[in-house]
Design a protein that fits this description.
Radius of gyration: 23 Å
CATH topology of the largest domain: Aspartate Aminotransferase, domain 2
Structural class: alpha/beta
Mean pLDDT: 92
Number of domains: 2
Helix content: 40-55%
Shape: globular
Order of helices and strands: EEHEHEHEHEEEHEHEHHEEHHHHEHEEH
Strand content: 5-15%
Low-confidence stretches: none
CATH architecture of the largest domain: 3-Layer(aba) Sandwich
Length: about 400
């Protein structure tokens, strides 16, 4: 049997190929943004966004990026910009490339993810069909790191397991191990022969110092680990729309590095062939020029300082309101996010009564807090936590 469609006849047997496809679940962050944009309240606040905003709530273009743009204007296409790693589509793409490498060449392995972690980590390794396990990280009671439980989980994991680690500005908790704790973790990794894979998305945002924020990685390198590292320049260079990332895998020698890099390029070839060049040119220009790199380091410090300033202001405001709760964890945590400890009911009240939007787990992007809204935010949090 056939049906006439316009100028063509189509068999009914060809209709309905995708009838079994339902809508995918909405990404929580995208849902927050959609709801925020649809809200017309004059004092609405979006605390879900994971990209830096200035004190007026606006995205910025760094001066080092503007200067780099002027330098590369008219630059012809370059086949490859990656010298020490493989260019990826931001940190997400770098994680996905590594997950696929793990599946292909360590098919019996699993990935251990911290509880909690960035929600997309679960999606990435699931879609790569790598079995997942978790290790304890956050202690809700102390609102700090659950170090003893973390070490037990590392110890009890099968030898030669893969672990995903946040080297700084942990997302979503904003809690990082101390240098001494990193050394203990590194030592236990050596004992268990685990593989450390670092997801470096916010270098510089934890302390304002790029070297200090990379200290965890240096500790592992000094201890002789072979590591993997996904690196993003989206947030720290204000290049969120350019999706510039890099995947690095440390190998035992040049021959092994050549083989691994060729396999990663082979994986990328089937996914997206070659990554865009413009953003990577900006990053390589900034990193390769001492003057531009120095400018970038200073601008990262400015962004980090603003996040710290907003943490202090929010804590002071809450304490001055006479809250019976303690708020030290606002300033004890670092980086882009504050893991507030607010429960889903309180988060819903903030949204419905005060037009303040955040993820349901109470994660707050400090980039959304400004001198213009911090009083309003503190009062709203005080109202929903009075009985807490």
């Amino acid at each position: 049997m056939r049906r006439f469609l316009g100028r063509r006849w189509m068999s009914t047997s060809t209709v309905g190929w995708w009838d079994n496809v339902g809508p995918a679940p909405k990404d929580p962050l995208l849902s927050i943004t959609e709801a925020f944009l649809a809200d017309n309240h004059p004092e609405k606040i979006n605390l879900g966004v994971g990209a830096y905003r200035d004190d007026e709530g606006k995205p910025i273009v760094l001066q080092c990026v503007r200067d780099a743009e002027a330098r590369i204007a008219g630059t012809e296409y370059l086949e490859s910009l990656s010298r020490q790693g493989v260019q990826a589509i931001s940190g997400t793409g770098a994680c996905r490339l590594f997950a696929e490498l793990q599946r292909r060449f360590q098919p019996d392995s699993r990935i251990y993810l911290p509880v909690p972690t960035w929600s997309n980590h679960h999606n990435i390794w699931r879609d790569a069909q790598v079995p997942q396990r978790t290790f304890q990280y956050y202690n809700p009671a102390s609102k700090g790191i659950h170090f003893a439980a973390l070490m037990d989980d590392i110890k009890n994991a099968p030898n030669r397991s893969f672990f995903l680690l946040h080297p700084c500005a942990h997302n979503p908790t904003g809690i990082d191990p101390t240098d001494e704790q990193w050394r203990e973790i590194s030592y236990l990794f050596k004992v268990k022969n685990h593989f450390p894979f670092f997801d470096m998305a916010y270098q510089g945002f934890a302390s304002g110092d790029l070297k200090k924020d990379a200290q965890a990685i240096h500790i592992f390198l000094d201890d002789g680990h072979l590591i993997g590292c996904a690196q993003s320049f989206a947030k720290t260079m204000g290049l969120y729309g350019q999706r510039v990332g890099c995947l690095s895998v440390l190998c035992v020698d040049k021959n092994q590095a050549t083989a691994v890099k060729s396999q990663l390029q082979h994986i990328a070839r089937a996914m997206y062939s070659n990554p865009p060049v413009h953003g990577a040119l900006l990053v390589s220009t900034i990193l390769g020029d001492p003057g531009l790199k120095s400018m970038w380091v200073k601008e990262v410090k400015v962004m980090s300082d603003r996040l710290m300033k907003m943490r202090n202001a929010l804590r002071v405001n809450l304490e001055n309101l006479g809250s019976a709760l303690t708020w030290e964890h606002i300033t004890n945590q670092v980086g882009m996010f504050w893991y507030s400890g607010l429960n889903p009911e309180q988060v819903d009240r903030l949204r419905n009564e005060f037009h303040i939007y955040m993820t349901h787990d109470g994660r707050i992007s400090m980039a959304g807090v400004t001198t213009g809204n911090v009083d309003y935010l503190a009062n709203a949090i005080h109202e929903v936590t009075k009985s807490g």
